[in-house]
Structure formats: structure tokens, C-alpha cells
Amino acid sequence: MKKKIISSSVLLILVLVGIFIYYKLPLSADELLPEKNKINKIYFSDFIDDNGVENLSIEITKPEEIREIIEVFESTKYTRSLGNKNIKNDTRFLNIYFFSINEDRAYNYTIEINEKGQLLINNRKYTIEDDKSKIFERILSILNIL
């Protein structure tokens, strides 16, 4: 009986440590956007701030402009976050669609990002590791929204 309690306790501790590591291990843009080097269109739809919702309808297809936006996401690390909470209502918010349309297959990412450094990528929540608003502000400056 004592062995079962000890082995159960050890197993529980290992599971908890595994969960902690899973959520705290830094991730790169390569892990969040595995097809990022094949993206050939980026579409910016909704921008929300204190003035309400604005439909941007900005489409980017030039490779150098796509690369510039991808480099913004490559400039930091991310961690997984629990849940898929609506991040739109907390602060300023931007909705972005990345498209990779090639001969062999089509793939897209839906990225929702707010100025608090929270992201939803295809309904998985992540948090920016360093300066939380850096990526958001850089994207807005590229789009001349600031």
C-alpha cells in the first residue's frame, strides 16, 4: 500500500512538472508558424481600439513586405497559455490572416493579437515573452496605423 502511494505521488509530480515545462518552454516563430517561409499573402481585417472596430481590408502580396511582417514575429519568443480566451475585448486588437497557397497545397493561419502580448493562432493561445506590446506596435507602424 505504501509503495502505491509513493509511486502515485511520484507519477503525479512528474505529470505536474511536465505540464509546467510544456507551458513555460519558450517557442519560436518556426514552431508557431511552421509554413511561414511559404506564405504568399497576408490579409489584415479587423482593428479594434477605443474608437471601435475598423475593417482594414489590407492585403499584402509583395514578398519583401511579407518578409518584413514575418520578421516581426521572428523577433521574439512565445509561451503557451491556457485556454482560448477572447482577447479582443481586453485592449487594442488586430486580426491577421496568413495564406500559403502553392501548387501542392493551401494552408492558412488566423492570428489574433492584442497589445498586451496575447496571441491566438488557429485557436491556440500564446503569450509574447519579452516586451509584450513590441510586436503589436511594430505591425501597426508597418501598416501606418499608429
Class, according to the CATH hierarchy? Mainly Beta
What string gives the helices and strands in order? HHEEHEEEEEH
The total of beta strands comes to: 7
Oligomeric status: single chain
Our count of domains comes out at: 1
SSE-based structural type: alpha+beta
The helix content, as a percent range, equals: 25-40%
Biggest sheet strand order reads: 2-1-4-5-6-7-3
Mean pLDDT, to the nearest integer, reads: 88
Number of helices: 4
Shape: elongated
- CATH fold node name: Immunoglobulin-like
List unreliable stretches of 5+ residues. Answer: none
Topology (SSEs and partners):
Layout: H1 2-24, H2 29-32, E1 41-49, E2 52-60, H3 63-74, E3 78-80, E4 93-101, E5 106-114, E6 118-121, E7 124-128, H4 134-142
Antiparallel strand pairs: 1-2, 1-4, 3-7, 4-5, 5-6, 6-7
Describe the structure in your own words:
With 146 residues, this protein is α+β, with helices and mostly antiparallel strands. The chain has a single domain, classed as Immunoglobulin-like, CATH 2.60.40. 33% of the residues lie in helices and 33% in strands. It contains four helices and seven strands; from the N terminus they run H-H-E-E-H-E-E-E-E-E-H. The chain has helices at 2-24, 29-32, 63-74, 134-142, and strands at 41-49, 52-60, 78-80, 93-101, 106-114, 118-121, 124-128. A seven-stranded antiparallel β-sheet has the order 2-1-4-5-6-7-3. A hairpin with a 4-residue loop joins strand 4 (93-101) and strand 5. The longest helix has 23 residues, at 2-24. It is elongated. The protein starts with a helix and ends with a helix. The model has no long low-confidence stretch (mean pLDDT 88).
